[in-house]
Amino acid sequence: MATAVLDKLESIGGITPLVKLCRGDQPLAQINTIFRNIGVPILAFLVFLLLWSWAAGKVQTSLGQLPGPSQVIEQASGLWQEHKAEREKAVAFYERQEKRNAAKLAKDPDAKVKWRTYNGRPTYIDQIWTSLVTVFTGFLIASIIAIPIGILCGLNQTLYIALNPLIQIFKPVSPLAWLPIVTMVVSAVYVSSDPMFAKSFVTSAITVTLCCLWPTLLNTTVGVSGIDKDLINVSKVLRLSWFTQIRKIVLPSAIPMIFTGLRLSLGVGWMVLIAAEMLAQNPGLGKFVWDEFQNGSSNSLGRIMVAVFTIGFIGFILDRGMLALQRWISWDKSAVLR
Predict the structure, then answer these.
(1) What is the pairing mode between strands 60-61 and 64-65?
(2) pLDDT tens digits, 277-321
(3) I want to staple 90 with a disulfide (CB 3.0 to 4.6 A). Which of 69, 118, 304, 314 is the partner?
(4) Is 247 helix (H, G, I), strand (E, B) or coil?
(5) For 135, how many CA atoms within 13 A lie in the half-sphere containing its CB?
């Protein structure tokens, strides 16, 4: 049983040395590998913290001293406590509402009771959640558009020649240039009373979509156009239908390049979203950073630093998530992915 569990765990690339160490397979070599993969990054991070702490004490700004690691941790704890306090307020609000309505119905069973939604101030965690929902919405829309067009462009040279000038013109356009246009168009044509799809959400999501399109589209095109011609010829000899050819030949062969584009798109989308939220004052992490900058309190720099690390950490997690998804979907499990 234990051997079977270790066999399964060994197939997970990141913990293979640890599993081999448990098996007693070349212990010194496994310890060396674990130290190189885990210990060295931790040491580098500790050196970074020491340098940051040293440099922060020497920089004075208009809002006070540049926060060091301990001040940032303190602000992160404060933001978490604010989130917990806000959630407790929400729970208390719904409990009071439930008791009030229950008492009203006890007096008059036919009475009409009102259920209101708690409209408290969005906390830091709420802002993170808002940004994540927005970036995934924009990223999914962009992927649904870009991958099919990329496959068609990779298979059809004429279509690629027709679309390439448009792609090359729009690809380098900054998201900050798209944002005013998107804001004006959404304001002119979009009306919704649903708070889930407010104008600010739609504006941010469309801006992310416009900037996520190009890396996925280009990498999919390159991946499909680079498929071995022998594979295409074999599919013709076997008289595979067009959809079967796409499913059996094209997609498995182009998966590495498609995922390269998706990873680039997600990273671009995450960066674009933060900038868009700052500029348009749409809810999310970008607005949090801008509000703290405008606030100008003694805690603002520390809170902004918390947001900076949060943005970077989420970006890292998103990239690792896409890499894990690629490893799971890819037919070649032995391929080295970075």
Answers:
(1) antiparallel
(2) 888 778 889 889 988 888 877 788 889 999 999 999 999 999 888
(3) 118
(4) helix
(5) 28
78 falls within a domain: no
Helix (H/G/I), strand (E/B), else coil: 64: strand
Residue 201: Cβ within 10 Å count: 21
Claim to verify: residue 151 and residue 295 sit in the same structural domain: yes
- Number of structural domains in the chain: 2
Give the separation between CA 72 and CA 49, rounded to whole angstroms. Answer: 11
Is 86 among the domain residues? no
Distance of CA 16 to the CA centre of its chain: 27
For the entire predicted model, the pTM comes to 0.80
Instruction: Give me the domain span that covers residue 16.
Output: 1-52
Q: Are residues 1 and 140 in the same domain?
A: no
d(CA 67, CA 306): 10
Q: In 3-state terms, what secondary structure has residue 317?
A: helix
Q: Does residue 145 sit in the same domain as residue 293?
A: yes
Burial class (CB in 10 A: 0-12, 13-18, 19+), 31: middle
- Please name the residue that has the structure tokens 């830091």: 124
Are 309 and 171 members of one domain?
Answer: yes
Q: List Cβ neighbours of 36 (8 Å cut-off, separation of 6 or more).
A: none
Residue at 71 is within a domain: no
* Cα–Cα dist 137/204, whole Å: 10
